[in-house]
Amino acid sequence: MYTKPTLVFCFLVLMLIVKQATPRVEFTNLKCMSVDKDFAEFSECTLKSINRTYKYISARVSLYKLPITKARVNFGLYKRFNGYKPFLYNQTINACHFFKHQKAHPVAKYFFDMIKEVSNLNHSCPYNHDIIVEKASTDMVNHHITNILSYPEGDYMLETHWILNDKYAGGIKVYLSLF
Question: What keyword terms does UniProt attach to this protein (predicted)?
Fold first, then answer.
């Protein structure tokens, strides 16, 4: 029969192994595309590696035709299988409605929660300023990937398309690896 200290020790060892087996996120690339540079333009779109374990992405969209009163976002998650193939999600949401009713869009909220602390996308329309995401780190994404909703290991791409004031403004592709 096992004694209590032996069971506690086995449990602690098991927890340590499980913690080490959880996925780790690494950003591999970031691509930003403006369609009409008279309407909106990416003035910053960077993936920065501080050291081997700390990377972050930053993006700034300069909006030239203000105010933005209508905003729709299409986002899709893709996994690499001989090229990037659709994986789980592909949705289009009314962003103005989303910020008022986040619980009505749980998938969009899951992805938005990864960047909400480092962006100025914290209110509904109208937008009278540039859109900024500043230093979204792999640690933030890793928390969501491991603690909230687990994904299998592999290479992924999150692709977004932005339609502002009924005009296609551009898109962002975030590439990452889980291992």
Answer: Signal
